[in-house]
Design a protein that fits this description.
Layout (H helix, E strand, L loop, with lengths): L2 H4 L3 E5 L5 H12 L3 E4 L4 H7 L5 E4 L12 H21 L2 E5 L14 H12 L2 E5 L1 H10 L7 E4 L14 H7 L7 E6 L8 H8 L6 E6 L5 H11 L6 E5 L8 H7 L2 E3 L9 H8 L4 E4 L2 H6 L5 E4 L4 H10 L7 H9 L4 H7 L1
Parallel strand pairs: 1-2, 1-3, 3-4, 4-5, 5-6, 7-8, 7-10, 8-9, 10-11, 11-12
Helix pairs in contact: 2-15, 4-5, 7-10, 8-9, 8-13
């Protein structure tokens, strides 16, 4: 047996931890006997350790070079990233990339660098993973070279990942929600591209028995002020905003209290928040974009034409007139497994 044959199958992940998607994926992969190690983007660590692994798995390329310290700093970081990719090709059998978004949600300050980075990653990758068919078509339209390397995988479920230790009645009591109120929830990082302000504007047009919950951290204080100013115009309906990071054990408070999760994104390739909502048996209102188009079927939510307030208002008004089965939504969520992603990485 050669040294190569006896080598333990292993992957180095950038990153392995700190993000729920990665932690759940690699936990599933390790349960199948694959060793996964947290990668360190530092020259000494890479020179010493990278050769020990069979594969490298990347998720968000811009994390390596988007310094936000000016163009010169970003260009230097980008050059280091390019050398890193070339070193992977020399030392490891395979380089994989999971395309979570078409471009970074927070674009680089250096013109064209994000597009060049993605072309380079695609060029050097053995495989590129994407969630479902619509997202795959979107990626191919933008980067035709990816077609021959593309592998469609499933986004695993969060059904048993987060705590569910309270009842719906208890959850609603935290926010003093009346039984006859329809509660719309936005949950997740409150970035500009997620159109939280559009949701607050749409909420103004809803009946008075509607309530809006917003739960998530704002990275941009100016954007936070814009959303607060919009909420300030609402006088006849109830709303609650928790503008901070929501810890895992508190997610249930919001998801069990609400009737529907609204994700009014400006653009989206994949949505972990949609999978999160389904995992709590909650229907979703979302735009017809990427992965959302495939996962939000008629029995688990409403899709609308993106970035149009009239379309969003119409979808939100339509929701109370429809009946959804929590059991059916959970059934759909349980069907989402990490198996295809694990198989692709092995």
């Amino acid at each position: 047996m050669s040294n190569n044959d006896s080598k333990e199958v292993s992957i180095v992940a950038f990153p392995k931890s700190g993000i729920a998607y990665n932690e759940a994926l690699y936990q599933a992969l390790e349960s199948q006997g694959v060793k996964v190690t947290e990668g360190v983007f530092a020259g000494r660590w890479l020179l010493k350790n990278l050769k020990k692994f069979d594969s490298v798995h990347l998720h968000w390329p811009s994390f390596f070079y988007a310094t936000k310290k000016g163009m010169l700093s970003e260009v230097i970081a980008f050059i280091k990233f390019c050398l890193f990719l070339l070193y992977i090709k020399i030392k490891c059998s395979s380089l994989y990339w999971t395309a979570h978004n078409l471009y970074p949600h927070n674009p680089s300050s250096t013109p064209f660098i994000d597009k060049i980075a993605r072309w380079l990653v695609i060029l050097l990758c053995s495989k590129v993973f994407v969630h479902r068919e619509t997202a795959a078509k979107t990626l191919i339209n933008e980067f035709p070279l990816v077609k021959s390397k593309l592998k469609i995988i499933e986004h695993g479920s969060w059904v048993d990942y987060y705590p569910k230790t309270i009842t719906r009645v208890k959850a609603r009591s935290y926010f003093n929600i009346a039984e006859d109120q329809t509660v719309y929830l936005f949950i997740g990082l409150c970035s500009k591209y997620k159109n939280v302000h559009l949701l607050t504007e749409a909420f103004e047009y809803l009946p008075n028995n509607s309530m809006l919950l917003i739960a998530g951290k704002f990275q941009d204080q100016d954007y936070y002020k814009k959303v607060i100013a919009s909420l300030g115009k609402i006088t006849e309906k109830k709303f609650h905003i928790e503008a901070t990071f929501i810890p895992d054990e508190k997610l249930q408070n919001y998801l069990l209290a609400c009737d529907v999760v609204v994700l009014p994104y400006e653009e989206s390739l994949t949505s972990g928040a949609a999978v999160l909502a389904l995992g709590f048996g909650r229907p979703v209102i979302a735009p017809k974009l990427g992965y959302l188009t495939d996962i939000i079927t008629d029995d688990c939510g409403i899709l609308y034409h993106p970035n149009e307030i009239k379309e969003l208002v119409s979808a939100m008004e339509k929701f109370p007139t429809r009946k959804y089965s929590e059991c059916k939504i959970l059934e759909n969520a349980y069907a989402l497994t990490w198996d295809s992603a694990c198989d692709a990485l092995k």
